[in-house]
Design goal:
- The radius of gyration is 21 Å and the shape is elongated.
- The two termini are 27 Å apart.
- By secondary structure, it is an alpha+beta fold.
- The strands form 3 sheets. It has a 3-stranded antiparallel sheet with strand order 1-4-5, with helices on one face. Strands 2-3 form a two-stranded antiparallel sheet. It has a two-stranded parallel sheet with strand order 6-7.
- A hairpin with a 2-residue loop joins strand 2 and strand 3.
- It is built from 3 helices and 7 strands.
- It folds into 2 domains: 70 residues, no CATH class; 57 residues, no CATH class.
C-alpha cells in the first residue's frame, strides 16, 4: 500500500471557491463525516491548509482516506499577567484593536493560563475576566517542530 498526502486546493469560479480536485474533495469530505466528531460537516474553507493522507492506486490516484490535518494561523498570548483591572481592560482592548486591524475580526485567540499556578500567582479577578471574555478551554497540546 502506498500513501500520499494531498493538499486540498481551491479555485475561483463565478465568484465562488470550488475544489480544484472534486474527487479528492469528496473523498476528504466522506472521510471527515465518518471520522470526525466535530465539526460536522466540516468546511475546509475555514482552514488555511488542509492536508489529506490517502492510500493511492498504481497510478497515484487517491482511493481511500487515511488521515486529515487542517491548520489555522491563530494569535497566541503565551504571557498573560494582570494585577490591575484597568490595566486588564486597556491591554485587552489594545490587543483586540490590533488584531482587528490585522484582519482577525471574529477569530479565536489562545491565551496561556497555566494549570499548575498557585492561587496567589493568578491574576486578581481572573475568573471574572474569563467569564466576561467568554473564555473556554481550547483542548490544545503543544509540541516542537523538529
Amino acid at each position: 500500500m502506498k500513501v500520499h498526502v494531498f493538499q486540498l486546493m481551491w479555485k475561483a469560479v463565478g465568484g465562488a471557491l470550488v475544489p480544484v480536485d472534486e474527487q479528492l474533495f469528496q473523498l476528504a469530505a466522506e472521510y471527515a463525516d465518518k471520522n470526525l466528531a466535530n465539526p460536522k460537516p466540516i468546511n475546509f474553507l475555514d482552514y488555511k491548509n488542509a492536508w489529506f493522507a490517502c492510500e493511492v492506486d498504481e497510478a497515484g490516484k487517491p482511493v481511500r482516506g487515511l488521515g486529515l490535518l487542517c491548520m489555522v494561523l491563530r494569535p497566541d498570548f503565551p504571557v498573560c499577567r494582570f494585577t490591575d483591572n484597568a490595566a486588564t481592560k486597556k491591554l485587552v482592548d489594545r490587543a483586540s484593536d490590533y488584531l482587528h486591524d490585522q484582519g482577525y475580526r471574529g477569530a479565536h485567540v489562545l491565551v496561556h493560563i497555566a494549570k499548575d499556578e498557585a492561587p496567589e500567582e493568578r491574576c486578581p479577578n481572573y475568573l471574572d475576566w474569563m467569564t466576561a471574555f467568554g473564555m473556554k478551554p481550547a483542548d490544545r497540546y503543544t509540541f516542537d517542530i523538529k
